[in-house]
Design goal:
This protein is of the alpha+beta class and 159 residues long. It is built from two helices and ten strands, in the order αβαβββββββββ.
Length: 159
Amino acid sequence: MPADVTPGTIPDPDRRRLLNWFLGTSFGALLASIVYPVARFLNPPEVETAATNEVDAGAANDPEFVAKGYKIVRFGSEPVIVVRVGETDFRAFSAVCTHLACIVEYLKANQIIHCNCHNAQFNLQGQVVGGPPPKPLPPFGVHVVAGAEGSARVIVSRS
Ligand code: FES
């Protein structure tokens, strides 16, 4: 060992390399965590849209319609709530709450479309009757058609 070098004062090359690697990867991770969200914002992924203008929501006497009074069906990527008001009277609205985008449900006993997130209530025309939503639920068209073997089918369409 040379006379002017004392133990502990010379940087250990392995330690320095490890420290450089650690700082380099940390900086890379920081850079990626900033660049990736900005890139996704500027170039968002394509949202799946319905390939058709109509969706079959099922049989009018579907047990789900009869028991719960409603069903959530998918119109492309968009959830739609289909409410069974009567045997052949159905209503359909976007199931995305206009407040902060929670999914609504139908309370059959109260005949109210309800959002659990902040206790919003919509009537059977989709109008806001309680809670914070700023707008009504966007409506969808809905009609009942004769299906195979005499069963009635509920068809949802863009209105
Ligand atoms: S998200 Fe529905 S009431 Fe807030």
